[in-house]
Amino acid sequence: MLFKKKKELEPAKREIPEGLFVKCESCGEMLYKTVLEKNFLVCPKCNYHFRANVEIYKKLLLDSGDFKEAIASHLESDDPLEFPEYRAKLKQAKESTGLKEAAIAGVGTMGGFEIVLFLTDFRFLGGSMGSVYGEIFYRACETARDRKLPLISVTSSGGGARMHEGIFSLMQMVKTTIGVEILNENKIPFISVVCDPTMGGVMASFASLGDINIAEPGALLGFAGPRVIEQTIKQTLPPGFQRSEFLMQKGFLDMVVSRKEMKGTLIKLLSYLGAKNG
Question: What is the dihedral angle through the alpha carbons of 78, 51, 70, 264, rounded to the nearest 10 degrees?
Fold first, then answer.
C-alpha cells in the first residue's frame, strides 16, 4: 500500500500529567505547580496569595525549616458533645493533612532570634478553633512567658470557633485572650499575622490582639462573612470590604506584607523589640 491513512501519519498526542499546572484564582494564569511551590504559593504574575499550609510557613519563616522543639504536640481533639459525624470528620482531617489538630506550635529561630511560633492550617476543618487548638495557643503563651521569648502567631482559620464542640469551643476565645494578657503582663512581644481567611471567634479573640497586627495581601478577615452581613443589614457593602487593604485603611491593621517579604519584616520587628539570639 503506497499511502498510509491520515490517522497513522499524525504524531501521538502527549498527555499532560494531572496536577502539573495550577490556575491562578486571580489572574487566570496557568502556573507550574513546582514553580508556584518554590514561590511559597504566591502567583509570580499578579502576587495573588494562595492559601498555604503549616509546612510552607515553617519553611518560609524558621531558619531550619522546622521547630527545634514542639509544644503540646501530643494533644488531640475529643468529641465532648458526641456531635454527629464529628469523629469521622476529625479522622478524615488527620489522614488528609497528617496533623493531629488545626493548630501547631513550637520553639524555633528566625533570623537567629529565638521565638515561639504558633501556626494554624485551613485544611484541618477550616482551621477552626476547638478546645485543643485553644490549649495549644495557651501553652505557647506560657512557654513564651517562661522563656521570655516573643510569640508570633500565623492564622488561617476561616472556620472560626468549631461548632462541633459548642461551648467548649467558645470558651477558647476567653482562654486565648487570657494567654495574650499573660504576655502583656510580662512584657512579652506578641505579633499576630492573619492570613486568608481568619474569621469568627479566632479573629474576635487573640488574632486581633497583637502588639503588632500584620496581614497578607487580599486576606479575608472579620467576624461574619460579607454575604452574611449583606443579607443581615440589607445593604451593599463597599468594594474590598473585609480584605486586608480595606482594614489597613481603616486602622485595624499595622501592616500588609507579602508572604515573600514576611520573614524579613518579622526579623526587623524582632530586632526593634529587643528579641534575643537563639
Answer: -160
Q: CA–CA separation, 16 vs 19, rounded Å? A: 9
Contacts of 76 (CB under 8 A, 6+ apart): 100, 101, 132
Instruction: Enumerate the β-bridge partners of residue 113.
Output: 110, 277
- Domain 51-272 falls in which CATH fold? 2-enoyl-CoA Hydratase; Chain A, domain 1 (3.90.226)
Q: pLDDT per residue over 229-276, tens digit each?
A: 988 988 888 888 999 999 999 999 999 999 999 999 999 999 999 888
pLDDT tens digit sequence for 76-94: 999 999 999 999 999 999 9
pTM metric for this prediction: 0.91
Cα–Cα distance for residue pair 182/141, rounded to 1 Å = 7
